[in-house]
TrEMBL record:
One of its GO terms (cellular component) is cytosol. The keyword Ubl conjugation does not apply. Keywords: Glutamine amidotransferase, Transferase. InterPro entries: ChyE-like, Class_I_gatase-like, GATASE. It comes from the Bacteria. Residues 54-187 form the Glutamine amidotransferase domain. GO terms for molecular function: transferase activity. This is Glutamine amidotransferase. It comes from Stappia taiwanensis.
Amino acid sequence: MILDPKLLAGRPKILVVLHQETSTPGRVGQELIRRGFALDIRRPRFGDCLPSTLEDHAGAVIFGGPMSANDTDAFVTREIDWIDVPLREGKPFLGICLGAQMLARNLGARVYGHEDGLVEIGYYDLHPTKTGCELMSHWPDKVYQWHKEGFDLPSGATLLASGETYPNQAIQVGPAAFGIQFHPELTYLMMVRWTTRAAPRMALPGARNRRDHFAGRYVFDPAVKSWLVGFLDRWIGHADAQPCRAELPQRVLS
């Protein structure tokens, strides 16, 4: 989706944090633009700063990346610490894959690999919890994954969906912060790029073969796309429906 930036001038902004030079926000970004938001894309790994407040943003999304939330690189530590900002200000926050693990780390939870060295690369079963079903009635049966680490459920977080290899797949923290281990942002071109550039990873224990990635997409992606639309309705809505700044809920970290 390509829109004239002039059409988005003055629109509410979503802070988008990416971790590679070629990364894009994929279908999540496309859907946010369709809803009337402007994307403020930053790459802290390459020197971009993160704002000290989100008062000029409607929300924030931290996407995935090849690094670990346990890495000692300065930008990783800064991003984990920065998550205090949306939590403190009560702004909508979404962490995807690495972003979800960073949210867990921020809240004091452990990020770790599977004890048997298993990874999730490809499509895997997703099991919504009772609370998850109360939040959203339609969850996909299978979701696309690309990770070799998971996270413990942070204190104070609510589990929305679980998996078999990595049990914590979707969590909610307070009214506006969410972390998901899977990749609803994935487009077809992203799948081509990931499975080409990182082809050796599909030989890791537990990974699906490349053919099954593409076959699975045609079967499972419509439900994932439908879920994403419903989730974004719940999480951020549309730009035209954004409350004025004075009406935004505020939450103080205890």
